[in-house]
Structure formats: C-alpha cells, structure tokens
Protein 1
Amino acid sequence: MNNIIIAIDGPAGSGKSTVSKLVAKELGLLYLDTGAMYRALTLKAMRENVDLEDGEALTLMTEKTLIRLDTMPDAETKVFLDGSDVTFEIRTPEVTDNIKYIARVPGVRRSMVKIQRETAAKKGAVLEGRDTTTVVFPDAQYKFYLDADLKERAARRFKELRSLGIETALSDVEKDAKKRDISDETRKVGALKRAKDAVYIDTTSMSIDEVVKKILAEIKKIK
Ligand code: DC
C-alpha cells in the first residue's frame, strides 16, 4: 500500500499508539506519532525556560526547532529534538502536564500540521493524535476514532508508566486523564473531536489484536 493515509484519533489511553504502530507495520506504512512532536516541543520549552504562557515565544521556539521521528523496523519510534534522542524524556509526567500550553498555540500547531502533512504525503502513513482526522487530513480515505472508558484508559496508562519505571497511584493517573480529556477537548485549535465520518471503535473490552483486526477489516471494506 502506497501513499495511503490512515488517520486515527482518540483520547489518551484509547489504544491509538499501540494499534497504529501495528497497523502501520502490517501495511508497510510509516507510523507518525503526532503527540510525540508536541511532547518534544514541550520538553524543549521546559529545558530552555521559555514562558509557557507566551504563545509568541513558543511559536518562535518552534520555528527554530528540528524534530525528527525515526520509525524503527519494529515500528517503534525514536524521537530526535535538535539532533538529540529524547525518546524517553518526552514521556515523563512533567512533560505530559505541560503539553496543554504548547498544544493550544495556533502558530505551533500550524508548523506541526505542515510537517505532518508533508511527511505523510511522501509515502503514505498511519498518523495518530487528536486532530489527524479533523485538521491534518480531514479528507483521508481511512479515518478512525478510538475510544475507551476513563477507568480503563487510566489503568492502561498506569501500566505504561510502570513499565517505564515511573511509580504513581492509579487514582492520580485517573485524575490526570480526566484533566487531559478536558484540555484536549476544549482548546480553541486542534481540539479532540469525533469526526462524523470516522469509524468509531470502543476499545474498552477489546484486546489490541482485536482492534487491529477490526481496523484492517474496515480498511478492506472501504477500499
Ligand atoms: O498522544 P499523546 O498522549 O502522546 O499526546 C500528548 C498530548 O499532545 C495530548 O494530550 C495533546 C497533544 N496532542 C495534540 O495536541 N495534537 C495531536 N495531534 C497529538 C497530541
């Protein structure tokens, strides 16, 4: 499959990343983790003490930043910020907490969306994030919205943090997930919205394998 765009959106913990990687691998497409780009910018702003309330400063910083995503043969992504590998640093709770400041700046989003469109258009891709079905590729042939109950999403995130060696309480993870839903759904630009023409999949009681199979079956149907 070439030059095919598959866009997958949904809230944190809906299973997007794991599923998107597997779908990309199965179809031989590039996997584009758009959240990793907002994470890398947030890390840079924190490191350089850029005022997170200053949209203009964040836009300027973004314009001078080089973000590179390298997809490995196993579909894992390495994230490079101005040439340095920040794959692990961008996943800390501190970065996650501060993404809302970066994600709401129109100038920042414009730059990210441009890179995402150009990268994906070259050879086709599976893109996942919050606005890939509504802003980045609203006309993509294949659009999916993955969802899951808050409790299940928090439990998944808790497991993921543990696997990264980050100790935290499940109740805190649930509170954070709720806060992130609100900021993802209410920002003025690039908010998380369920596109009417996206295939909706509730993954609460589905295994990863089942979700991947469902997406591949839908793609065959739409083709
Ligand atoms: O997918 P993730 O949890 O790594 O995304 C982290 C944050 O990045 C998310 O809470 C909002 C932001 N984001 C965004 O604004 N637009 C995207 N397309 C992807 C992520």
Note: Residues 114 and 136 are 8 Å apart (CA to CA).
Protein 2
Amino acid sequence: MDYRKYIAERISIEGVTEEEIYSALALPPNLELGDYALPCFKFAKILRKSPVAIAEELKESYKTDEVISDVSAVNGYLNFKINKSALTSAVLKEIFQKKSAYGSSEEGKGKTICIDYSSVNIAKPFHIGHLSTTVIGGALYKLYKFLGYNVVGINHLGDYGTQFGKLICAYKRWGDRQEVEKGGIHAINELYVRFNNEADEQMESEAREYFRLIESGDKEANEIFEWFKSLTLKYVESIYDKLGVKFDSYAGERFYIDKMGPVIDELRRKNLLEISDGASIVNLDKYNMPPCLILRSDGASLYSTRDLAAAYYRKKTYDFDKCLYVTAYQQNLHFKQIFKVLELLGNDWSKDLVHVAYGMVSLEDGSMSTRKGKVVWLEDVIDKCVEKAYNIISDKNPDLENKEDIAEKVGIGAVIFGALYNNKIKDITFSYDKVLSFEGETSVYVQYTCARANSVLLKAEKIESITENYLPEDNEFEIIKTLADFSKTLKESAEKYEPCYITRYAVDLAQKFNKFYIENKILTAEGDTKKFRIALTSATLQTLKNALSILGIGVPDKM
Ligand code: ARG
C-alpha cells in the first residue's frame, strides 16, 4: 500500500496537484512526531500564507481514519501518524495477493516508450564499456513494462561505416572461412586489429573500394558483411540471454540509409541546411553548439543524419510518448544537437526525446582501446565473476547442491547490480571483490538475505494471511514501511531513469530484514507473533525477488 498516495489523495491545496503533494511528503524532522510529514514551506508563495498557518489549516480539515490515526501541525510541518496495525495488514495483504506483481501498476497504460540501448557495433568487441547501456536499458525496459507501459527495446546497431570495407579487405587477405566461423567475433576483431596495425596505402584504397561495393549492392561484399553481422549478433545475444535483456527491434544505422532523403529535403525546404567547406550542416551558433553535420563534402551521411532519420521512423512506427537513448555522456553533444535540429524542423515531439546518459566503467586494472586490440570483453568479466562466485560459494558451503546454477545467478547478479548501484552519471571502477562481497551493498548480500528468508520459510508452516490488529514492534514496522514504499521507489526510478533507486532499495530492505532476523525470534516466537513474523519474512522475500527481477537478477533458494 502506498500510504503517501493515500495521504496525498486526502489533502487538497489550491493550485497544487496531488502529484506535487505526493512527492513533497517526506520523513518528519523528528520521527517521534509522526511517520510522514508535509513541509508546507513550498506552498507559502502560492497561497500567500505562512507555512505555520498553512499547516494549521490543513490539520483542521484533515479527517483522520483507520489508516492515518493522528495529524499534528508543528512549525510549518503537517505530521501524520500511521495506524500501524492497519498499515501492516494492508501491506501484507497486498503483497500476498499480488505476489510477483507486487509493485506493478497501470500508470503506463496506453503509453509507449522506446528505449534505444546496448546498440552494439557489428564486428567490434562487445566490451565492458557496453555494460552500463545494456543493464541500465535492460532494467528500464523491465521497469516500464512492470508499470504498464508498452515498451519497445531498440538495438540501434552500428552496422554502417567504412570500417566494414577494411574488414572485408582484411578478411580477403588474411582470413579463413572456417577459422572465422569458429572464432566468431573474436576472429573478426583480430582481422580488424591486424588491418589497423598493418595496412598500407594499397590496402586502405582496397578497403575504400570494398566499402563502395557494399554500398552499391555487390553480392559478394554484402554476403561477407551479412555473415559478420550474424556472427556478431549470435555472440551478443548469448550475452543478452545471460543478462536477461531483450530487444524488439534490431533496426540499425544501415536500416536508415534509404530513409534519410526526406529528412535532408525537409531541412533544405525549411532553409536549415547550409554549405560549409563543401559539407552540409545545420548551424547551431544561436544555441551555443557547434554545427550539426548532415552530409560530408563527398556526400556521405553521418551518424547524426542516421539518427535524425531514426527518430522520424520511430515516431511514425511506434508513436512513442517518450524515446530514450541510453549512451555514455560522451554523446551528450550529439544528442543535444539531434534534439535541437528536430525541434527546429518543427516537431513538437522532440521534447519527448531523452538522452539517458551514464558515466564510464573501467576495471581496477586499466582501460581499453579497440583499435590496438587491448580490450576487456564483457563476456570475460561475466565469466570471471561467475567463476569467483563459484569459489566463494564452495568455500562457504561445500555441501551446497547445484553450485553451478547458484554461481551463475550470483556472478551475473553481481555484474548487473555492481553496474547499477551508483547514480548512472558517475564514473565507476568495477572491482570483482567489491561486487562479490557478502557484506557490502551488493546483490550477493541481497540474494543471501533471500536465501536466509527462504530457509526460515522452509521450516515454517506457510502463512500468507495475517492476524488483524497486530501491533508491530519497531524492527517490524521499519520493514513494513519499506515494503509499502516499493511502488513509490519504482515510480521514482522510472521518472528519473535511475535503476539505482531499485538497487538501493533492495539493499535497504535487506538490511532492515537482517536487523530484524538477528534481533528477533521468528520460528521460536509464539502465537500471533510467530505467525506475523513468518508472514513478514515471506512478504520481504517476495518484494526482494520482485526488485531483483526488474534488474534481471535471479534469486537462488539456497546459498
Ligand atoms: N553504436 C553506438 C556506439 O557504440 C551507440 C548508438 C546509440 N544510439 C543511437 N541512436 N545513436 O556508440
């Protein structure tokens, strides 16, 4: 039960929406005063009254009931006391009724969100730099679905560019069909690296010719290209499976080659196109941005040109309410330019385009570069995490069955959770020891808490109903309040495009449960208390599972 919503629905302030009241509700400065508080300072300006007077007036008109048992006005705050037993039974009932749908909603009904994420480059390594876009996008995808939106996951493949000419040239010169078939993306990448290290002028010119051949529809060149593409996709899809990530469309840059014409015509018609040094550009001086390049002087299109065409195509095809682009902040300028150009073209939907930018991920032991071939493959990071998880688990609990399965859930969970724990804009250094710690703010800690809850439940009779009028103790009520906050957390996470709200929530709930577990008896408690505590354990486990599943993380029964 979302009791902030409950309160917000019962307060009306002229000129202030229910949403605004909802998000203003906070913890009171002093928890003795209540469980929730509405600071009235924000409304002073609109109402032209002092916060103290506003709080007093709201207190007079607020009707207490079986949920909110007491309201007080103190120093400009309106404080609410929740009827603990009413909240407790309401929350538990809702969890047992909705189960794996607890926290879900219909707020997105009838709305469509496109999420452009992971967007791999064909024939290039899928490396640790792709981790964030893949898991942030993947989490948002599942989150919006959970909130009732129609979601379209788009992998805007990097499948266009002169590098494909180079690759074909390298393959023709040094490649072997069987070897490449067997080595897949790794073999292709080796060819690319070798080209960059060894190509002379002659090869460079051959490469340009191969690129031209792909473009002009030459059968052989296109067959080789398509083959590279299928090898790359086969490879990345195996990683997507592990990370629990899905796409509805793989329309990449090449897909838009024949869709750019109308956009360029439109730019011309609206007098937005200028020629500068032979290139066609949109001048963005007025907006303090460098020009957006549309066509190079040789007439070739650019990354931006294809993105403009893609935006039109997506609007037309999906009629989105929002279209998100999950890429590193290095592309801030690119998206600012694209969004501005679309706005200048008169598309009011340009305001619905959002660049969801994130920081860099590096490993503790240095960085990477694709061209020189020193690159950390995401697959290796995942495998290493799973292997380390296996060792840790075996050490802790040598008799555990299905260790491989468990290690897979723990290791993959650690990679995902580790990448999602901080605000996404922060640069992060990925540390195996940190993400795999049982004590830290990790998925391992949360999963371990789940296993702990599960082992309690295995020994208990199944209780999914609760005693009415149970008055929870502090430890218990802390958990209840956190459980009740789940849907609010999801809503805010979706609004801010921040999966870290969910990871942090999971750790917080797990910490509160562990405190309760250590300080209170569960199975050896008596009567109603025992029943309640078992129900609380079960509700916590369900909620933690729901939170982790939005992130694509599985929960082992035992650890
Ligand atoms: N392939 C690009 C890269 O690796 C990311 C594409 C992001 N999406 C887009 N519509 N530009 O940087």
Note: The mean pLDDT is 94.
Protein 3
Amino acid sequence: MDFEKDAYEIREAAKQNNTLYATSLPMIASENILSPLCKEMLISDFHGRYAEGTPGQRYYQGCKYFDIVEEKTMELAKKLFRCSYADVRLPSGTTANMAVFKALAEPGDKVTVLDTADGAHISYGKWGAAGIRGLELISYPFNGDQMNIDVDGAIKTIREHQPKLALFGRSVFLFPTPLKELSEVAHEEGTLVIYDAAHVLGLIGGGRFQDPLREGADVVTGSTHKTLPGPQGGIILSNLEEDKIVKRLGWGVFPGVASSYHLHHVAAKGIAFAEHLVFGKDYAGQIISNAQSLAQALWDEGFDVLCEPLGFTRSHQVVFKIGEDKGKWAAETLEQAGIIANMNMVPGDQHPLHPSGIRLGAQELTRIGMREAEMDDVAGFIGRVLLKGEPVQTIKKEIMQFRQDYQNVQYCFHSGQEGYAYHRLVE
Ligand code: DSN
C-alpha cells in the first residue's frame, strides 16, 4: 500500500466535502456550521490532551489552562440556560442521555418515552442507550395530526406505570411539548422529568421556544451542534438543588460514560455559548421565521407539508410527505440536485428504511445569511426537482450559483485575532 497516497486521498476527500457543502443547500435538521473562533478551538493544542475529573480535581497534570476553559464554559452554559448545574463534558447528546440513565435509573426501571416511529431519538429506544441500561420502555400515545404527544393518553400512561423517569424529546420536533401539564402529573407520581433538547437547544437558548427548566423538567440533555451552532458534543443542565442527584449526574458522566473527554470541543462549546448569549435571540428568531416561510412556500408549491392548520412548525424543522415509500427516492434525488436532506418516517409509516417523508431544517441556511425571501427560492428548487421533474444537473448548477452569495458564517464574532481560522466556507 502507498500510505502517503492514502493520506492525500483522505485529505482530498475532505477538501471535496468542504466544496460540496459550500456549494449545496445543507438542510439536515441536526447539523450546523461553526464560527471561526469555534473552529480555532478545534485545532488548538487541547485537541490532544487529557483531563479526567473536574476543574481543580484532575487525574493528570497540565490542566491549569483547561480548568479555566471548563469553568468558564460551565458558567456561560448556566447563564445561557438559566440553571444552577451544567455539565459540558459530554461528547454527544446520546452520551448525555446515557449518563442520565446511569445516574438516575437502575436496570429494570420503567421509563416513559415516545416511540422512534413517532419521532423519538434512537437513544431512548431498546436498541439504544436506554436498552443498554436495561430500562423498561413504555411509549406515550402520539397525535399524528398535531405531531405531538397525546396529552390525555400520556397522563394515563404516567399514572398507570409511575415510571422512574418520564422522558420527553424528539428528533422530529415541530412543536413544543406540553411539558407543564405532563411534569405536574409526573411529579405527583414521584417521577423525574427529563427533557431531551438536542434539536431545539439553540432555540431555547435564544428564548424562542419553550423553556423546559421553567416548565417542569428536572434535567435537560442536549447536543451542542444543531440549532445551537457549536461543536459536536453534548450537555446536561439542571436546576435541581438536591446535592445527591446533582452528584449522581456528575458520576453518571465520569466515571460513567466518559473517562477523558474532548477538551477542544469543550473550549469550542464555551465560545458557542458566548456567541449565543449575544446573537442567539436574533438567530433563533430568524431560524423559526425561515422554517415557517419555507413550509408555507413548499405548501404553495403543492407539497403535502405536515400540520398546515397549526402553521406547519414552531421550530427549525419542516416535514412533508412525498408519497408511500418515496422518501428515499426523494432524498437521493434532492442530493443529486445539490439539496442535502434526509428521508424520514411520518405518522402511518411502518419501516425506517421505507418512509414516505422528507425532514428539512432551516438552521444552517439561516446561519449563512438566508432570510424569508430566500426560503421561497429554496422551495422553488425543491419543487422543480421533486414535483416538476426538471433535470437535476440543471438545478445543481443554479444552486451553485445561488450559494455564491451565501458564504459567510453569521451570528458570531468576527473581530479579534482569529489566527488560523477562516471565515469563508470556500477559500
Ligand atoms: N438522529 C439525529 C437526527 O435527528 O438527525 C440526531 O442525533
């Protein structure tokens, strides 16, 4: 084997990927792009270092600057989400959920969750983190017309099973969860309420969605790279005063699901939180407005967008049905035209590999400066590809042209000494 050639081949693929994403319309609802200062953290020396434990209580020497970073990052997270406890060590949202399951439940305990077919994340399915912890999963009923938990049904479920944890959270997350009512019932039954904010963390931080810690959630988990435009990673937040639970949460993280963690990602999270404290309100507001405009424009094009009577969406996401078992075809066809999205199950679908829907996210297009008017253009491209059957190569060329005006990352700091970071997506 020619290892040098292999190394360059990998580098070349990464460069081509940079170009692909800088010339397409990236619309996967769980993704985002980093600010220059966040990027700078990812290639700092922190990337290769170890730091087990917590600031001041380390198992390794050499952590004095990282201690400053982690302390500051926790402080910024507490400020952003108005809470007394923030653990920023988690490498992902899934490990945040694992840590909570380890800390607050025992194998065999009951946990109420949404079904994955109704939009729940895989980490609270039996094949994911909840299954690994040996939890007994009980599903809430779902109202497909409203794309939300069936409140009366969920109350019955919680009353009947008195679960250890009632978990609320979704990967298809169009509307806020009726958390207040459900938390009250859960607390009456002695159940802890966990809210997985992975998708909507940035909307919550920007004050534009529901506020789970003020609506009854005992613990919030999340990921830091979706609507919160930081590095890939996870977070756990809480306002619980009880020392015992807070200590257990910490132990769930270390030595539970992480030994060392990704120091460079912690530093980048800190910068993302600092940026979101300044820009989050505007960014989150624009994301939601863009998603609503996109949904309306797709509806006007003739797409069967979910929840029209409810205004389609109150988050960054838009979902439309394209026809039975046609989700995969639609996602692949969009990709050929330069629109990157994913197929998704919608109510009534039976199999994740044969869905009839497409899920879109407006957060990344918003981050590069698109507004409501551009959502009309984007819906037009999607309509021409999927409804009018125009040649994908023609649309791809037009999208490359269209993207030229949207190359700068917005809602972040651009002044100061950026060093080796760069602003533009293509150099
Ligand atoms: N499964 C991812 C998504 O919603 O796209 C989140 O981890």
Note: The first helix runs from residue 3 to 23.
Protein 4
Amino acid sequence: MDVTPQHIRAYVDYLRDMGIYDLYQRESPGTVLTPELREIFLAAVTPKEPVAQSARAAAQLTAQRTTVPTPSRPPAPASSKPLLDQRSSPAAPPMNYFDIEPQTELPASLASPMPTPVSFDKLAPLPVDIIPPSGRAAALESLRAEIGDCTRCPLAYAGRHTIVFADGDPNAKLMFVGEGPGADEDASGLPFVGKAGQLLNNMIAAMGLQREQVYIANIVKCRPPANRVPEPLEANTCSQFLVRQIDIVRPQVIVALGSTAATYLLGVKQSLSSLRGRWHSTRGAKLVVTYHPAFLLRDPRQKGEAWKDLQMVMAELGLKQVKKQ
Ligand code: URA
C-alpha cells in the first residue's frame, strides 16, 4: 500500500486516541506503544518516493514546500533505533500534510473517528493541592519549561516561530481564553497583541481593569497556518497545558472568547448564541462565553451584546463600570 499524507495523519490521530501524545520527541510515561506498533509507525512515516499519487497532489506539495518551510527530515533511523527515542533532533513529519485533498478513500482501519470535544473538567481531576499565590508565578514558569520547544502536534511544523504561553497576572481573578496566536502573537510571543488584542485591551479597560491584572491564554499555543481554526488533534493535544494553567492561576471567572474557546473549555459543540448570556463552569471557575474580539472587529454591531456578557462578569467580580470622560 502506498502511504499518503492522509494515512499518516489518520495513524497519528489513532495513536493519540490511545494516549500517545508526543510522537516525535519522547514517549509519555505509561505509553502503550509496543515494539510492533513502533514498526508500523516507522513504516508509516517512511514514505516511498514519490509520495503523491497524482500529479495534482504532487503540484500541491511542491507549492506548499515553497511557501511553508518545513524542517528537513533526518535520515531514516538505522534498523532497531526507534524514531520515538530521538530526543535531540525531533523528526519532522515527512511532508506538509495540511490542506491536501484526499487522493484515495482511507481504509476503514486507518480512518480516524470524528473526535467529540471533551470538557476541561473531564480532561483531568481537579487538583487536590492548591498552589499558594506566592508560588503561582514559579509554577507557571516550570510548566512553560516543561512545554519546551514543543513538537507534540503538527502545529510545530506548520510555520510557527514562537510558542505563545500566556500573559498577565499569575494570581488573576479573571482569565480570558482565545483561540490561538495570530501573526503578531507568533512574532512577539504574547497573546492578543494585534488588532484583536487592542480591542480586548479596550474591553478590559472598560471593565475597570488593566491588562496586567488579568490572565490571557489561548486554546492552542502555536499559530495555526493562515490563522485557520485549530484542528481537534491540535486543540486536544495542547489542552493539557491550559488545564494546568487554569489550575495554577485558579481564576474566579473565565471568559471564553469565541466558539473555539467555548467548544473546548466546555466540551460542547453548540452555537455561540446558545452559550452566551448564562453562567457555565469549568475547573472550579465560573465561565461566560462571549464574542471573539476579531469577530467584533468584523461586526462592531455586536459590541453591545459582548458588553452585556462582560457586565455579568463585572457584577460577579464586584467591578464598577468606568465612566467615560
Ligand atoms: N486571536 C486569538 O484567539 N488569540 C490571540 O492571541 C490573538 C488573536
């Protein structure tokens, strides 16, 4: 059987469904990757040339290679050395497998099931030990160090420059969660610093707060190519770290900015309008859903609706509306 990008992708999804999250760098503790599975995986990521089966797909691959540089792949590992143990030089996926139309139907055994979102409450037990406020900055720093130069999901190979961890007060009562970094964030390493970020800053100021008093993070920490919505595989892989950030900061209120944040935090795929205007909860915090600032920039008529959501938050936190001069 010829290996196509879709086969590899389905196989990666399959391994992740089994709890194997870091295919290119290391084995997670308790991994169930048997020697036989390693062999299958190695076979799957070692494509025979040419990979593309049709001239069109080959042209697409060539076009993508010229616009989206991918790290060069190290030579195939010698006989018994498992790919998963190559810590110093993570192997990139053998090709850019985004946005390539399927050339063949996947065999049933390789097809990945449509993942359903899992709420942040179900991803991990609530922490028993609460980190005291004085230790939260250090706990976040050590989590950032644990993430390292992450290669746990395909976004690592999709043109990201910087991992955007978070910004703000490690002891914040209020946390904002967006979707994922854009170009400005990828360049600066900070969330919400572009145009949408300026609007978010204005929203925070209207609530009587400064940006430094809140905590800001995203569902994924690496920029998706062309600012597309993160794929479930990417969001699910990254969520483990946002869960821990929330558990460290322990905000009283979380604002989910837009439907991607709401979907993954709450584990539901529903319209934004059906989720707005009422309280939800996640990881011990109250959660409200509102429009993403980027959406508000496109449709400023909805700013009044977003302000209603923020007023719910202000009432909960005892904040007074800032009077316009
Ligand atoms: N949009 C987001 O969702 N997050 C950012 O950090 C920037 C823009």
Note: Residues 65 and 96 are 7 Å apart (CA to CA).
